[in-house]
Amino acid sequence: MPSGTFILFISSIIISDYLALEAKVFMVLMDEEPTISLQTEQSYPRNSTDDVVVYKERISNGHDIFLESLLHRDSYTKLYSYTHLISGFTIHVESEEVLNALQNAKGVRAIYEDVKMKKLTTHTPEFLGIPAQVWPTLGGADNSGEGVVIGFIDTGINPVHPSFSSRSFRGTLSRGKFKGMCAAGERFPMAACNGKIVGAHYFAQAAIAHGDFNSSRDYASPFDADGHGRQVVHTASTAAGNHRVPVIVNGFNYGYASGMAPGARIAVYKALHTFGGYMSDVVAAIDQAVEDGVDIISLSMGPSTIPSGPTAFLNLLEVELLFAVKAGVFVVQAAGNGGPHSTSMLSFSPWITSIAASVTDRTYINTIQLGNGKSFSGSGLAPPTAGIMHYPIAAAADASLRSTTIGIASLESCQHPELFIPSLARGKLIICTYSFDFEYEAATVTTVADNIKKIGAAGFILRMDPDVGSTPVNGTTMTLQVPGIILNNVQASMALWEYYNSNTIRSRSGQAVIFNARARLLDGRQAIYTDQAPMVASYSSRGPDVDNALLQTADVLKPNVMAPGSSIWAAWSLNSEGDQLIKGQNFALLTGTSMATPHVAGIAALIKHKHPKWNPAAITSAMMSSADVTDHSGSPILAQSTDELVQATPFDFGAGFINPARAIDPGLIFNAYFQDYVQFLCAVPGVDDESIRQAVGIGCPTTRKIWCSDLNTASITVSNLVGSRKVIRQVTNVGGKNETYRVTVKQPSGVKVTVMPQVFKIQENGSRRLKIVLKAMEATRAYSFGEMLLQGSNKHAIKVPIAVYVSTSIGF
Fold it and tell me: What gap in Å lies between CA 198 and CA 393, rounded to an integer?
């Protein structure tokens, strides 16, 4: 079967006989009903808040009583009680004996080792067609997403940013569902919850227990000290930031930023810090978010190891998110940045919507014009050199004092302003060299820019050291206060160096005495737009999906959809310690699947605004079945590979590039519920009924033979087709009127696909079952791709991607 490198996945490790002694924090799942189950009982009305509070306290106190009866009080510390979606707790222990006692105790369902977690726009609303095609249908930009709360689980938020300021038109939440509160703390007063930000909590007990939390740096409050709040600050503003906030960086206006759903509210659950975080803190954050009543959870994070055990679908975080989906919360997660390698997904459960990242049609290209008429492109959002004149060029080593303590490589990297000779450096363009010092953070582009300003130079040219090769330069999207360009390819760097040397006159000792080389830098802050977009970004993680550490592929299409992720302008925390390249700025230009994820969270808020009763599976289905598989020029979407562009497949972009205008009116949806996901788990190879019962509290609902591919999703994936397989899909008409659909199929290579019925009429709100038979015609021993298209008489078009691995054409 296909395989590949698999990195950075969410994991929880069930304790076994070879327990690592250094493990100190564990999550314990108990065999009792959580609070949410009480809310669904007829004897307890959903609005019976007092009963819920009493029951929640009873569960937490029960955990304390259980531990005190089993263990010595000085042998453990309870960090959390999980009470809402699951009943369990996190415990910090000092010995293996404590764990042995827990393993053998009655009432303990499972024990999981804590896992470290990693932190994985002015133009994108227009790029997605939202202002013209979506906002007007929802009452205008400022109201779009009104009544919807998006919960961001990340590194906190900067509450004073203009993207999150209160707007006078906002009143109370229209549906009155959200009941979260604000936890005040350092740099986060109660007033920070202003109507736009409606809830805030922080979770750091596991981080403290592991010894990674630094109170002077990480803040014991929801305040973002990192800027990956560049993921709550950056991602929250992308999803739900206020409309038309000016993006001013270093005194230059780059445009006006708007979130996808400016009318949506934001709830912040800080569970990551400058160093990262731990799963037990994240699970506590999810539990609180769902209890508070968020509609959407956005996760731009991933852990550091792949799960052990028969399937990754049953690790504790995945189970927690399954219960969040059961509670009606839409969960969106970044696919990961492990591309272009296959099987590099960081998000794989079918109840989670996993997001790939695209390049948009906007790029920033800086240009240097040499005195010999040649020009080279580079990067760096920097102002131009003054006027239209060409400035003399001087290499850093030729304009500096020789030092016995600093090597030539450090001298050429422009990190030491005190060594520049003022009369030689002033008014010139200084050539600095990008060496291995930059790779190991001993040198930074920020320092180069600061030093150029200090010495009074006209600007800088950062060339690549040939020994470093074509390594991507850290800081190519940073904004600069001084003219500068990064020549991030060796050929341009060598051509510049040849021109410089041939026009520099030296003394017999080799000292440069006359600088005849000239150049000027153009404005690198002006955006350039192209037609060949969207395009799958090279870094975006790829499928096929896997369900265990052995990299066995699963009957689940991942990623689900693709959204803009490259060079995304959004809010930034002025005090961010997470990235020195953009410290002190109110906005930043970032890249990654973490940036694509909040686009989808915001679009989900728009869908939820229009269809408040839709469940998470319906929202995912609407996004997938309406996605685009062609770019803006009408050609098939391409994917950036290692060194070329190739035609994208569903393993690159899922169902395609998200189309918000069609997603809010998809025509048909494929729906699924909690019981369907349990049935899916029961079909996972190597998973028995007891494992499922331990994880989700119930066993398999039926003994009939089922396949994972039977889950009712807007895609069909078969990872091991032998002979033929029948797949059932049920569609529901949400198009507002009766409609007739005609089915056509693009056959995957080596597979014959038959759909019955081929033509059907479906009433408004009615449902219809489709029988799809996939017959192996040829053993391809590789994945092939096709598509089922349902074309409606009311102009709805539902596309269902098909991915099949044909093992053998012999029947079973």
Answer: 54
For residues 224 and 499, which has the higher predicted lDDT (pLDDT)? 499
Measured torsion, CA atoms of residues 708, 713, 715, 716, in degrees rounded to the nearest 10: 30
Q: Which of 522, 517, 485, 520 is nearest to 498 (CA)?
A: 517
| Runs of H (alpha helix) within 71-214 | 96-103, 124-127, 130-133, 205-210
* Cβ 731 vs Cβ 790: under 8 Å: yes
Task: Domain count for the chain, please give it.
Answer: 4
Query: What average pLDDT does the structure give for the chain?
Result: 85
DSSP 187: T
Domain assignment present for residue 631? The answer is yes
Contacts with 703 (C-beta within 8 Å, 6 or more apart), sequence order: none
Q: Which residue has the higher pLDDT, 308 or 537?
A: 537
* pLDDT tens for each residue of 756-799: 999 999 999 999 999 999 999 998 889 999 999 999 999 999 99
Q: Please report where in the chains the tokens 């759909």 appear, as a residue.
A: 755
Answer yes or no: is pLDDT of 663 > 90. Answer: yes
d(CA 783, CA 184): 52
- 504-506 and 512-515 beta bridge pairing: antiparallel
The predicted-structure confidence for 704-750, as pLDDT tens digits, reads as follows 778 999 999 999 999 999 999 999 999 999 999 999 999 999 999 99
> Which distant-in-sequence residues (6+ apart) come within 8 Å of 17 by Cβ?
none
Percent of the chain past pLDDT 90, that is, above it, reads: 54
CB 211 within 8 A of CB 192: no
Residue 445 domain boundaries: 363-528
**Are 503 and 582 within one domain?**
no
Instruction: Give the Cα separation of 528 and 530 in Å (integer).
Output: 7
The residue with tokens 């081929």 is: 758
The answer to whether residue 693 is domain-embedded is no
| 398 and 510 part of one domain | yes
CA distance 300 to 592: 9
Residue 173 has pLDDT above 70, yes or no: no
Q: Are residues 101 and 167 in the same domain?
A: no
Residue 2 belongs to a domain: no
In whole angstroms, give the CA distance from residue 737 to residue 759.
Answer: 17
At which residue do the structure tokens 């600069």 appear? 480
Going by C-beta distance under 8 Å and a sequence separation of 6 or more, which residues neighbour residue 248?
254, 586, 587
537-553: pLDDT as tens digits? 999 999 999 887 667 88
At residue 27, the pLDDT reads 94
**Pair 707, 555: CB distance under 8 Å:** yes
Per DSSP, the three-state class of 476 is coil
Same domain, 445 and 594: no
Residue 599 lies in a domain: yes
Dist CA 217 CA 576 (whole Å): 10
Same domain, 167 and 217: yes
Would you put residue 578 in left (φ > 0), alpha (ψ -120 to 50) or beta?
alpha
At 239, the pLDDT band (50, 70, 90 cuts) reads: confident
Mean pLDDT of 671-696: 92
788, two tokens = 């089922």
Segment among 84-88, 327-331, 575-579 with least mean pLDDT: 575-579
Report residue 309's pLDDT band, with 50, 70 and 90 as the boundaries.
low
- One DSSP character per residue, 101-119 reads HHHTSTTEEEEEE--EEE-
Question: Vertex 233, ends 230 and 238: CA angle to 5°?
Answer: 95
CA pair distance 593, 335, nearest whole angstrom: 6
Hey, what are 308's tokens? 């052990």
Instruction: Assign 3-state DSSP to the chain and report helix, strand, coil percentages, each to 5.
Output: 25, 30, 45
CATH of the domain at 766: 2.60.40.2310
Task: Tell me the catalytic residues.
Answer: 154, 228, 594
Residue 812's pLDDT band, with cuts at 50, 70 and 90, is very low
Q: Is 665 helix (H, G, I), strand (E, B) or coil?
A: coil
Beta-carbon neighbour count of residue 452 at 10 Å? 27
